[in-house]
Amino acid sequence: MVSRLPDLEGELEARLGALGFELVQVEWAGTPRRPILRIRMDLPDSQPGTGGVTVDQCAWVSRQLERWLDRLPGIPDGYVLEVSSPGVERPLVRARDWVRFRGQVAKVRWRTEEGPVSVEGEILGVEEGGEGGGEAGVLLLSGGEEIRIPFHRIQRAHLLFRWK
Predict the structure, then answer these.
(1) 7 lies in the same domain as 69
(2) Is residue 16 in some structural domain?
(3) Same domain flag for 57 and 9
(4) Which of 24, 56, 79, 126 is the most buried (most CB within 10 A)?
């Protein structure tokens, strides 16, 4: 479904920005008979534990987007729209997330030639010129080792919430 709508993410990012929010993640889920469009949004420059998006804001944004989505060619009939906050374990989707959440602890899963790898560490930021000349996220592991993970290899990355 997403392949039929190549500009959907960019357009959603622009529309959310105009409404005062930031697009965190957009994905299709569900089944062909019951497709689900999931949108995670946040307040610009928010930090974990400092408020964030409310249920009322999610409902309001959902109503604003439904009008546009319902008229958009390529959106399947009977789709379900889910608009939510990113939660306390916010996904790290873009390089700017790695800059914004520097100092926070994250869990990252990526693929290597040997297979999948998963680690936890403190986000140090972004480094240019990694593998293949692209950007890489830099983590400080608990043992003091710094690792660089090329963004194109990351399968999933998110902040880790620690209960106090």
Answers:
(1) yes
(2) yes
(3) yes
(4) 24
84-110 tens-digit pLDDT: 999 889 999 999 999 999 999 999 999
In tens, the pLDDT along 64-77 reads: 999 999 998 888 88
Q: Does 59 lie in the same domain as 8? A: yes
Asked, for residue 147, whether it belongs to a domain, the answer is: yes
With b for 16 or more beta-carbon neighbours within 10 A and e for fewer, the 132-164 pattern comes to eeebbbbbeeeeeeeeebbbebbeebbbeeeee
Helix ranges, the chain (H) = 8-18, 55-71, 95-100
CA 75/CA 90 separation, integer angstroms: 27
Beta strands in 62-153 (DSSP E): 80-84, 105-112, 115-127, 136-140, 146-150
Amino acid at 137: G
CA–CA gap between residue 8 and residue 16 (Å, rounded): 12
Structural domain that includes position 112:
95-159
Torsions phi, psi of 154, nearest 5? -70, 130
Q: Which tokens go with 78? A: 């009977």
CATH number of the domain to which 37 belongs: 3.30.300.70
According to DSSP, residue 91 is labeled B
Which residue from 16, 23, 64, 55 is spatially nearest to 41, judged by alpha carbons? 23
Eight-class DSSP state of 99: H
Contact between 107 and 119 (Cβ < 8 Å) = yes
